[in-house]
Design a protein that fits this description.
With about 180 residues, the chain is mainly α. The protein has 6 helices and no strands. Helices cover about 70% and strands about 0% of the residues.
């Protein structure tokens, strides 16, 4: 039944990622150029709900696509999951324990790793199939049935799952950096 709504869900996720990209750019400019002139009070007030929503939402969406819709994650997708799944649990624990000291540092490390893997996979997906056959950029496939170049989401000609990951990890990095500067 839910499979009927997959195209609409893909479209909504694509729109949400573009909105999150705009927020990420705004926060980065505000943090690095304007020294927190506009967003500082909002980041201070909404840091925990936003981090928890983004990380838990990412976990939920990845599990929805793999466990319900049946899309097998490739090796690169698993590496991105390794970077986001702990952040959901870490965020919950840090919020509960009021850990202001280390959560941002650990989050930046995990998000930077996930960002690099997502950028690699996005570039890999954007290379035309005939070029991929020449071995110009290797897929880290481990023999599973999943293809790193397969586009589960392909909206607007450039929004794919790795694009969503790039935006999510970049947003989290900027948010964590903002939090470090607030202290």
């Amino acid at each position: 039944m839910l499979m009927f709504y997959l195209p609409q869900l893909n479209f909504l996720l694509a729109l949400a990622s573009l909105g999150l990209l705009a927020v990420t750019v705004f926060l980065a400019v505000d943090l690095f150029v304007l020294k927190g002139k506009y967003a500082r009070p909002y980041v201070a007030q909404y840091f925990w709900p936003v981090v928890l929503f983004v990380t838990i939402g990412s976990v939920a969406m990845s599990l929805l696509y793999s466990e319900y819709f049946g899309f097998i994650p490739c090796s690169l997708c698993w590496l991105q999951r390794i970077a986001i799944y702990p952040q959901a649990l870490m965020g919950l624990m840090a919020f509960k324990l009021r850990d202001e000291k280390y959560v941002s540092l650990y989050g930046i490390g995990l998000s930077a790793f996930g960002l690099l893997v997502a950028i690699y996979q996005y570039i890999y997906q954007m290379i035309p199939q005939e070029k991929l056959a020449t071995g110009i950029l290797p897929c880290l496939a481990d023999g599973s049935n999943a293809d790193c170049a397969a586009k589960i989401i392909d909206e607007f000609g450039f929004v794919t799952f790795p694009f969503l990951s790039v935006v999510t990890f970049a947003f989290l990095i900027v948010l964590y950096l903002y939090r470090l500067r607030l202290r």
